[in-house]
């Protein structure tokens, strides 16, 4: 995991979150022990609290859905733009 060269597995994140939430070590100490940034560990713990309904915010599945909807929205806007240009092109061709 050192240096953040690869994405952590869900299992690894779950273990880190559990250590951070247990309270026998500070989040900072957990981060140091596993060569992670304190910000990353805090974000993981915060997201776990949201997912568990212990804190307000978007759950992980809601975040995934939002990202997918944004991608689809972007694609649809591009499709509409292409159709508008094609319509304008054919309108001038048929005059």
What would you say this structure looks like, in words?
With 95 residues, this protein is mostly helical. The chain folds into two domains: 1-57, Orthogonal Bundle (Arc Repressor Mutant, subunit A), CATH 1.10.10; 59-95. Helices cover 72% and strands 0% of the residues. The chain is built from four helices and no strands. The chain has helices at 10-22, 27-33, 38-51, 60-93. Helix 1 packs across helix 3 and helix 2 crosses helix 3 (38-51). The longest helix has 34 residues, at 60-93. It is elongated, with a radius of gyration of 22 Å. It starts with 9 loop residues before the first helix and ends with a helix. The model has no long low-confidence stretch (mean pLDDT 92).
Provide the low-confidence segments as ranges. none
Q: What is the CATH topology classification name of the largest domain?
A: Arc Repressor Mutant, subunit A
- Compressed to H and E, one letter per element, the order equals HHHH
Give me the Rg, rounded.
22 Å
Count of helical stretches: 4
Secondary structure: number of strands = 0
Content of β-strand: under 5%
Question: Briefly, what CATH class of the largest domain?
Answer: Mainly Alpha
Estimate percent helicity.
over 70%
Instruction: Tell me the count of domains.
Output: 2
State the secondary-structure class.
mainly alpha
| Shape descriptor | elongated
* Mean pLDDT level: 92
- Report the sheet with the most strands, covering strand number, pairing sense and barrel closure: none
How far apart are the first and last residues' alpha carbons, in Å?
64 Å
CATH level-two architecture of the largest domain: Orthogonal Bundle
